[in-house]
Design goal:
Strands 1, 2, 3, 4, 5, 6, 7 and 8 form an eight-stranded mixed beta sheet that branches. 21% of the residues lie in helices and 36% in strands. It has four helices and eleven strands, in the order αββββαββββαβββα. By secondary structure, the chain is of the alpha+beta class.
Length: 206
């Protein structure tokens, strides 16, 4: 019993199995242009193996050398947009997002000098801005992706109740689609964008 007390009494709880997840940090960059608040997006370089040409926010995998998730988001933003750290003013965190394989930590930041942006061609094909009010006034399309459990053939069905007829849980994931000119914003980027708009809209009414 003493060992149990030592292990648990002062322990801080975390997400179970978090060490097995890939961890990413993402930035929602805010830019003021022509007296209007805009959200900046990237078009991923077309030679990339993962999601070439898709629309995303700056961000990437959290490295061992990063102080924390926030530092990783700033580093990735600077690397992808060619900015210095003092040009990225972090405003605050958004809710983190858990998928089947990843934990994504989003933040919002003000980019102080849009004209200094020099996208890194190794990662970014182009950048563009969308007025925040446009995104607020144009509701996204909402679709759903069904998730189901599919055990492998060597799964020991004989050791669980009802065997192959066991009723596995199912889930549904919302997919938002935002459209701006010829751009389509969807996937995790759209989920983070939708959350950001909801959080900031709620603050406006308080």
């Amino acid at each position: 019993m003493r060992q149990v007390y030592q292990a648990l009494q002062n322990r801080k709880s975390e997400l179970m199995g978090h060490k097995n997840f890939l961890k990413y940090a993402v930035m929602v960059p805010l830019v003021e242009k022509n007296g209007e608040l805009n959200i900046l997006f990237e078009e991923r370089a077309h030679h990339l193996k993962r999601q070439p040409g898709e629309i995303c926010f700056p961000g990437g995998k959290i490295d061992a050398g990063d102080k924390d998730e926030r530092a990783a988001a700033v580093r990735e933003t600077c690397e992808e947009l060619g900015l210095a750290q003092h040009e990225v003013e972090v405003i605050g965190p958004l809710d983190y997002l858990i998928t089947s394989f990843h934990i994504v930590y989003p933040f919002a930041a003000r980019i102080s000098n849009y004209d200094q942006i020099r996208p890194n061609p190794d990662e970014v094909a182009s950048v563009f801005c969308v007025p925040m009010e446009y995104l607020r006034s144009h509701a996204p399309e909402l679709h759903y992706v069904d998730l189901s459990v599919a055990p492998r053939e060597d799964f020991p069905y004989d050791r669980i109740p009802n065997g192959r007829n066991y009723k596995w849980g199912k889930g549904t994931v919302p997919e938002f689609f935002y459209y701006y000119k010829d751009r389509v914003i969807w996937g995790l980027t759209a989920r983070i964008l939708n959350h950001f708009l909801e959080v900031t809209e709620a603050a406006k009414s308080n």
